[in-house]
């Protein structure tokens, strides 16, 4: 027999490692739609549609090239709804001499994959996922022996390695990072160009009906699905971003605005993460736009850093530190996730906006994730497992390799500072400066006690006070600790009492 080549739902790339050296005459490509992958966390219905529709389009494109594809459908009555069970059934059908797979994006799936050989009696080869620009052994070599892992230093190595935005040995523009220029709030009346929408075709509509019937109870709206599900649409989405939004992406990267869910963001993460778009192609496109004078350097650099820096870095962190990483809980957080993360009403407008657009679009940009929903979870001490599962479930671009380090490490500091040198904790002043949410909110961003106090304020000071001993060792926390020490103790006590009442009500 030939090879059984396994392609997972987030591996819909023509040049995926498992398909290298494919022999169409003898090999079979196995694709599996299994219930377990849709429900181990309650994935947003749009995310399930995204992955299943991309798989079906990808399978069709392979078949059109004369490749034999064995595509197990979700509604196949014989489906065992787990990868191992489906691999075993496929082995019985095809009697392959070997199984070839690409390294998956989740520890859980890698463990499953490692059991395929013993379960089937067929040798299994798991290949490095070459879609990533930093091979895992290279990341390990970089990380070995470091006490903490700072993205900035990793990113510089990646710039040198790829030559992106380099002028000889020096970074273009004389600086590695232009983040200081990327912190403007959105001016009143500025309307960012909307990203293109990709109307569902017949395949996607069929998947939407299937998902509505099976996973309709999951949090999230299905109607309005408009994500790219093919490589061609993903390329069109990238081109539209570079043309229309990249020039201002840098300036307003950290801005938030009510009714403006996407601003100047690229929305390419879903396509990158399931294999429809090549990360290097996205980076080169942005670099070219800068070289052509179409986009300023702070925009191109900011975008490239997200992909070449952050994206590669969090993936390296994930595989370097799993499986222990997920279990860390440096701040001892244990509060259950409040119901408003699942759409229950809340008087906090910033939270309500972020959650509502998450429900409608399966998308929020990174400042909303980090400084609104993430910041709240950090301040309120939400249990890492609960908030991590939420992020993994509700965002269309969330796969564990990328979601876990971003939430666990960056947003809620559960790793105790391996990734970030201080917690990304902020009071209402930050949200008020970077957004227009506070106007028209029931709370007053300038008040920390009393009936209109903003929860982000009293929770922030309660958080600093609660962890004061721990933070005393961190020079980057000296400023908030000094401010706390200078406050009137009666004021601190009042804020902490307010926080106590608020958190008790949250738990009740
Ligand atoms: Fe959010 Fe507070 Fe601003 Fe309201 S006042 S939008 S709760 S930061």
What would you say this structure looks like, in words?
The chain is mainly alpha-helical and about 500 residues long. The chain folds into three domains: about 5-125, HUPs (Rossmann fold, 3-Layer(aba) Sandwich); about 135-200 and about 215-320, Alpha Horseshoe (Serine Threonine Protein Phosphatase 5, Tetratricopeptide repeat); about 340-505, DNA Cyclobutane Dipyrimidine Photolyase, subunit A, domain 3 (Orthogonal Bundle), CATH 1.10.579. It has 21 helices and seven strands. The strands form two sheets. A five-stranded parallel sheet has the order 3-2-1-4-5, sandwiched between helices. A two-stranded antiparallel ribbon has the order 6-7. Strand 6 (about 165) and strand 7 (about 170) form a beta hairpin. Helix 7 packs across helix 12 (about 295-320). The termini are far apart. The chain binds iron/sulfur cluster.
């Amino acid at each position: 027999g030939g090879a059984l080549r396994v392609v997972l739902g987030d591996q819909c790339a023509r040049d995926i490692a498992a398909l290298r050296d494919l022999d169409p005459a003898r090999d079979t490509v196995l694709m599996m739609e299994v219930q377990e992958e849709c429900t181990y966390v309650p994935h947003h219905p749009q995310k399930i549609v995204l992955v299943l529709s991309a798989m079906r389009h990808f399978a069709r494109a392979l078949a059109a090239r004369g490749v034999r594809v064995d595509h197990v459908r979700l509604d196949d009555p014989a489906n065992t709804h787990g990868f191992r069970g489906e691999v075993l059934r496929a082995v019985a059908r095809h009697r392959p001499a070997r199984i070839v797979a690409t390294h998956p994006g989740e520890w859980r799936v890698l463990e499953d994959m490692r059991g395929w050989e013993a379960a089937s009696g067929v040798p299994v080869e798991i290949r490095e996922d070459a879609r990533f620009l930093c091979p895992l052994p290279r990341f390990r070599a970089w990380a070995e022996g470091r006490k903490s892992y700072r993205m900035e230093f990793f990113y510089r190595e990646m710039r040198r390695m790829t030559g992106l935005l380099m002028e000889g040995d020096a970074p273009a523009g004389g600086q590695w990072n232009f983040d200081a220029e990327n912190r403007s709030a959105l001016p009143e009346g500025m309307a960012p160009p909307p990203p293109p929408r990709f109307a569902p075709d017949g395949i996607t509509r069929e998947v939407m009906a299937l998902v509505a019937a099976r996973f309709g109870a999951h949090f999230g709206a299905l109607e309005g699905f408009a994500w790219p599900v093919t490589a061609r649409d993903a390329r069109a989405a990238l081109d539209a971003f570079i043309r229309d939004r990249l020039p201002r992406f840098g300036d307003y990267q950290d801005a938030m605005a009510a009714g403006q869910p996407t601003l100047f963001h690229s929305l390419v993460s879903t396509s990158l993460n399931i294999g429809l778009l090549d990360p290097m192609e996205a980076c080169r496109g942005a670099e070219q736009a800068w070289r052509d004078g179409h986009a300023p350097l702070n925009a191109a650099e900011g975008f490239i850093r997200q992909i070449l820096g952050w994206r590669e870095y969090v993936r390296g962190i994930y595989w370097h530190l799993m499986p222990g990483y997920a279990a860390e809980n440096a701040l001892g957080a244990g509060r259950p996730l409040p119901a408003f993360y699942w759409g229950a009403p809340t008087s906090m407008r910033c939270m309500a906006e972020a959650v509502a657009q998450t429900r409608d679009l399966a998308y929020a940009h990174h400042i909303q994730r980090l400084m609104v929903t993430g910041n709240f979870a950090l301040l309120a001490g939400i249990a890492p497992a609960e908030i991590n599962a939420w992020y993994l479930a509700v965002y269309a671009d969330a796969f564990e390799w990328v979601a876990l380090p971003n939430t666990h490490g960056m947003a809620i500091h559960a790793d105790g500072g391996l990734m970030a040198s201080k917690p990304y904790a902020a009071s209402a002043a930050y949200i008020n400066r970077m957004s227009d949410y506070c106007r028209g909110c029931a709370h007053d961003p300038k008040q920390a006690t009393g009936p209109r106090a903003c929860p982000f304020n009293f929770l922030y000071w309660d958080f600093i006070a609660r962890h004061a001993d721990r933070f005393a060792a961190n020079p980057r926390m000296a400023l908030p600790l000094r401010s706390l020490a200078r406050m009137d103790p009666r004021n601190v006590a009042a804020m902490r009492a307010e926080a106590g009442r608020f958190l008790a009500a949250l738990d009740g």
